[in-house]
């Protein structure tokens, strides 16, 4: 039986790399994202390898998600995998200087969008049963705070706890849940976060040997291909170059 995988945010970065990795292995794919032309180009390319279904979707739009998922073609209806990857960080300014619209966008995308896809696709994963998997993209920012991580980190803390809690509710269904928590990875993520500032993007990755999207795709491929009786709960990755900063102390008191 063909395995089918649903990926949110497949138009760049980890999602695109996962689409390529799983297509090589012959998985059927439902690929979603907002940028229609990128999505179509990827689907056209990968359809030489496997069955691919494009869904131009904004994960924040609950009604559009409901309609698109309800009308998935029968061929793609039963899922062995869901990668909840669509997400973003906006800015690194200190909280008092942040735009509330940016905070709304992160909550709506990283929390509510992930909730929608999970809840709407759960019946299809449960129908597959043993061996099915949900992989959520958390972050080290969900466990370790740093200046400017505030709402982004908090959304990823939600993803971490939601992933663990889901496991409890899915006990007996055979459906597995994994939270992947990467550190510094090179992708458009930072261009989005820095508002398109290419120089800041370049400085972030210079000499850092950051994790690449293909590394994350390989990790997720490994997670989904574990024997059906094994659940990888949480997987935290960093480049060797990255460690934790020390605690910060304000020394302005006299
Ligand atoms: P990218 O910016 O390269 O990719 C993000 C993807 O999410 C794009 O395909 C984008 O597609 C999609 N997306 C964003 N908003 C929406 C939306 N509202 N609806 C549908 N799709 C959306 O980033 P990465 O691949 O690096 O990041 C993927 C995930 O991994 C994110 O959740 C991120 O928080 C997390 N992560 C990233 C790390 C990093 O350092 N890069 C480290 C740890 C975690 P489109 O714009 O076409 O909609
Ligand atoms: C992205 C990794 O360290 O920039 O989630 O927050 S970090």
TrEMBL record:
SUPFAM superfamilies: NAD(P)-binding Rossmann-fold domains
Keyword terms: Oxidoreductase
Entry keyword Secreted: no
UniProt cross-references to InterPro entries, sorted A to Z: NAD(P)-bd_dom_sf, Sc_DH/Rdtase_CS, SDR_fam
GO molecular function: oxidoreductase activity, acting on the CH-OH group of donors, NAD or NADP as acceptor
Name of the protein this chain belongs to: SDR family oxidoreductase
Homology family: Belongs to the short-chain dehydrogenases/reductases (SDR) family.
């Amino acid at each position: 039986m063909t395995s089918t995988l649903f990926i949110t945010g497949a138009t760049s970065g980890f999602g695109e790399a996962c689409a390529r990795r799983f297509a090589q292995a012959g998985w059927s794919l439902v690929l979603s994202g907002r940028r229609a032309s990128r999505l179509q180009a990827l689907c056209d390319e990968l359809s030489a390898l496997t069955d691919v279904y494009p869904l131009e979707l904004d994960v924040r739009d609950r009604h559009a998600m409901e309609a698109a998922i309800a009308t998935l073609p029968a061929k793609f209806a039963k899922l062995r995998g869901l990668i909840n990857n669509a997400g973003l960080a906006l800015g690194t300014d200190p909280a008092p200087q942040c735009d509330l619209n940016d905070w709304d966008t992160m909550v709506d995308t990283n929390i509510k969008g992930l909730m929608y896809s999970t809840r709407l696709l759960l019946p299809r994963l449960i129908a597959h049963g043993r061996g099915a998997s949900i992989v959520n993209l958390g972050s080290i920012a969900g466990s370790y705070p740093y200046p400017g991580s505030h709402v982004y980190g908090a959304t990823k803390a939600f993803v971490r706890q939601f992933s663990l809690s889901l496991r409890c509710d899915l006990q007996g269904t055979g459906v597995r849940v994994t939270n992947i928590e990467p550190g510094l990875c090179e992708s458009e993520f930072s261009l989005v976060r820095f508002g398109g500032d290419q120089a800041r993007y370049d400085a972030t990755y210079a000499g850092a040997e950051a994790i690449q999207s293909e590394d994350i795709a390989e990790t997720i491929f490994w997670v989904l291909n574990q024997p059906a009786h094994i659940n990888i709960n949480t997987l935290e990755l960093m480049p060797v170059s990255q460690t934790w900063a020390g605690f910060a102390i304000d020394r302005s008191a006299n």
